[in-house]
């Protein structure tokens, strides 16, 4: 194995970034970046804590991440599996990052900053959907944000329906759970009940 062990070795292979890769970085939300954020129905949230790193999917109606001001984003924590891995991390280490994806669009937006959790009743109520408020809101102060070019999306053909993977070709959550618990949890009943259960608990 030939392991890269220094920044100097890395730069010798990759060289220096071009000007466009540097000047696209902003320390606040510009009008152009705001349009991307408000159009995005999906983001990946990365956090760090004593147990290690975590990256979790976050999705909702387009614009679910609110631009509070030029340096602040707010994201409701919608219902999930109650593991709260990301939230545990944020409470202990505020460093966080978001990657916004917009269906059909190649460019995505990367945001790095520091986050905290807010449970102010009025703030929670302002994020309510179908009269169901989140239990907390992730408030993120921005250090930097920038767009990521479309190469990864183009290479992966992510939005091309012709390259969508048939769900039947992969194991279901119920099958995974059954395999890991000797059928104590999961199974066909779990899979059959999931759609109806999820519709009742989206918010």
TrEMBL record:
Q: Which PANTHER family match?
A: FAD-BINDING, PUTATIVE (AFU_ORTHOLOGUE AFUA_6G07600)-RELATED
In its UniProt entry, what is this protein called?
A: Pyridoxamine 5'-phosphate oxidase family protein
Species annotation: Denitrobaculum tricleocarpae
Instruction: Give the InterPro entries listed for this entry.
Output: Pyridox_Oxase_FMN-dep, Pyridox_Oxase_N, Split_barrel_FMN-bd
Report the domain of life of the source organism.
Answer: Bacteria
Which residues belong to any copy of the Pyridoxamine 5'-phosphate oxidase N-terminal domain? 29-149
